[in-house]
C-alpha cells in the first residue's frame, strides 16, 4: 500500500521540479541582455585627461594616431551635420585636443 503513495509523491515532485525549471528558463530567455556599464554622470565643467580618455574610449597615455582614430570614429557617429548633437561634437573635439596637446592647431582669432 505504501508503494503507490511513494510513487505518486515522486511523480508529483518531478512534475513540480519540471514546472519550476520551465519558469526559470522562460525568465532567463526573456531577461534583457547585460549591457556594458558606462561612466555615470555628466561632463565636468573643466575637461581633464581622465574625462577626455573616457569620452574617446582610449587610455590617457594613448598614442596620437589612436586618439585621432577614436576621434574620427566618434565624430562620424555624432556629427551635427548627420543629426548628432553639436554639444557632444564640441566635447569630443575638446577631448581630442586635450589628449594630443593641441598639436598642429592654431587660433585664428
UniProtKB/TrEMBL annotation:
Keywords: Membrane, Mitochondrion, Mitochondrion inner membrane, Transmembrane, Transmembrane helix
Listed GO CC annotations: PAM complex, Tim23 associated import motor
UniProt cross-references to InterPro entries, sorted A to Z: DnaJ_domain, J_dom_sf
One GO process term, biological-process aspect: protein import into mitochondrial matrix
Signal peptide, first to last residue: none
Main location: mitochondrion
Gene Ontology MF terms: ATPase activator activity
CDD domains in the cross-refs: DnaJ
Membrane topology listed for this record: Single-pass membrane protein
Domain J, first and last residues per copy: 51-109
Subcellular location: Mitochondrion inner membrane
Family as reported in the entry's similarity comment: Belongs to the TIM14 family.
Description of how the protein assembles with itself and partners: Probable component of the PAM complex at least composed of a mitochondrial HSP70 protein, TIMM44 and TIMM14. The complex interacts with the TIMM23 component of the TIM17:23 complex.
Function in brief: Component of the PAM complex, a complex required for the translocation of transit peptide-containing proteins from the inner membrane into the mitochondrial matrix in an ATP-dependent manner.
Name this polypeptide is given: J domain-containing protein
Organism whose genome encodes this protein: Apatococcus lobatus
Amino acid at each position: 500500500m505504501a508503494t503507490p503513495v511513494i510513487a505518486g509523491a515522486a511523480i508529483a515532485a518531478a512534475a513540480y521540479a519540471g514546472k519550476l525549471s520551465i519558469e526559470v528558463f522562460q525568465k532567463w530567455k526573456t531577461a534583457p541582455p547585460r549591457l556594458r556599464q558606462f561612466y555615470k554622470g555628466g561632463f565636468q565643467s573643466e575637461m581633464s585627461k581622465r574625462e577626455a580618455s573616457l569620452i574617446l574610449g582610449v587610455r590617457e597615455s594613448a598614442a596620437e594616431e589612436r586618439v585621432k582614430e577614436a576621434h574620427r570614429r566618434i565624430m562620424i557617429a555624432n556629427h551635427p551635420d548627420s543629426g548628432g548633437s553639436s554639444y557632444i561634437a564640441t566635447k569630443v573635439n575638446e577631448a581630442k585636443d586635450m589628449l594630443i596637446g593641441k598639436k598642429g592647431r592654431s587660433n585664428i582669432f
